[in-house]
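Comment thread on ticket #2218

A.B. wrote:
> Attaching the input chain for the structure job we discussed in standup.
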Amino acid sequence: MRKFQLSIVLLLIISFSKAQNKSGVPPVLADKDLTAYLFVYFTGNAVEEEAVRYAISPDGYHYYHLNDNKPVIDSKLISSTGGVRDPHILRGEDGKTFYMVLTDMTSNKGWDSNRAMVLLKSTDLVNWKSSVVNIQTTFSGNENLKRVWAPQTIYDAKAGKYMIYFSMQHAGGPDIIYYAYANKDFTALESEPKVLFVPKSKNACIDGDIIEKDGVYHLFYKTETNTPGIKVATTTDLTSGNWTENDNYLQQTKEAVEGASVFKLNHSDEYILMYDMYMKGKYQFTKTKDLEHFTVIDNDISMDFHPRHGTILPITRAELKRLIAKWGKPANYPQINNNPVLEGYYADPEVLYSNKTKKYYIYPTSDGFDGWSGYYFKTFSSDNLVNWKDEGVIIDLKKDVSWANRNAWAPCIVEKKIKGKYKYFYYFTAAQKIGVAVADNPTGPFKDSGKALVSSRPEGARGGQEIDPDVFTDPKSGKSYLYWGNGYMAVAELNPDMFSLKEESTKLIEVDNTFREGTYVIYREGTYYFLWSEDDTRSPNYKVRYGISKSPLGPLEIPKDNIVIQGNKEEEIYATGHNSVLKVPNKDEWYLVYHRFSYPTGIKMGDAGGFHREVAIDKLEFNADGTIKQVVPTHAGINLLK
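C.D. wrote:
> Ran it. Output below, let me know if you need it in another format.
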């Protein structure tokens, strides 16, 4: 997995990566994992239309309703009026909590009939906990309050809280945009509302929508009197009251508009500003890079529904699948890719089928840390090889290992039945040494042996590092072997305790000059296959090759065409390497589990692409003569394994 010992080269890499990721650690949500969109909206002024509805989009341009365009939340259960309007949805700072705020109102009771908003919180976009906040009854001095409209939420980093902002009108005055901070549980407001923004013209303003770009907050709003329309004001401090107003109208139509909303297109520097042409019953979409100049893109947009005043949230594939599992996949929605199989940055995947749990597990390197500086290991479980559950951290070097606290890389695992009970022996790299831990279950808890199993270079090895372990149990002899090495391929027989190496069993296996690291051994129909990675994990040309042997100790015969997998430039897939292999129990069915540059961002990161990687699975097949068919890496991935 790693290429060179720490040196000036690596220091330069670390310096470079810090320029890309200031914290040096993985983000809570990687932008590359945002692959779809959720449109949250209502549909009209009839009571049955004043409810939250969902639609999904693969690209931000084409939208398909869910649940037959029926409500996904019952307004009567969450509101004080029996209806809700103007839904705004926000992803929380933790990447996995969602906040929605709504106008608590039914229009048939009049436009000056509501005094409340609805606050909702969810961790899955399907199940929501709600509360009603009535401004008039909660805060004194609001006896002449006429209406509370279009609440929205933004995280105020300066305050470290979620700000809810909304327009209010009191008798005799204009609509003004106010704000208050939500409490920790997002069930109430911490204090009475304060003024957030009033245009210098003192005209009424409603339907505020705030987005941050490059440290500047952009407030899009509708000026409600004189000449109505969409305008924008900016500030670098949300509660300062210091706003710079743009006098230009931003809508690209002469039709009446409201409900402006802005979202950033995934994997792009472009934004979409959309607004509700409410007299026409449709939206207009415009595109921009600077949030100042907008181009109409209506001809690029399609919807199979007619939304009113809503918002659009970029979502991950896992979130998309969760929505589809609940409300069904629209008939015309395009295929959903299954690679990468894990969201986030992960590399060096080890795959295991557990006979104890009848599930599959992936044990990766936790990636996304500057210079491969991760310090913990996680595992993921699945019963179909497509949908994976994060089982959490299984070893934290800083807490669980006494002999090393850095560079947690390239683990491997084996399931053994000892005295009738399953044991899981987990071998891992830490600080360029190899350790071993054991557990009774594939998800742990794992207990470290207390010392490194491999800490020095084997005799005869020139250079390289003591990393990238692979554990293999020979089905013919029942013996278990440990392979390791960067720059050399070493092997040693494990003692029955699986915690120590048999004395004088360590040897080097000769490989050609394509060998770099990542040994992985499998057995099929009398042949031992040795797979390894060539080149550098930071190189787009990182790939997997193989050799064959009649013994788990070599020597190797290297086929002429021995590439197992390499990049697919047409699909912008690069650096496919450091693999493991899964054999489906009781079948001659095989899968290659490997990492690659994160798509689509990794190829643009330079050397940092080598520690911002993701895990993928594609099918591994053999020719009639036993040679391996070259695997073509895909975005589609594999189908559900039944």
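A.B. wrote:
> Thanks. Noting for the ticket: The first strand starts at residue 34 and ends at 42.
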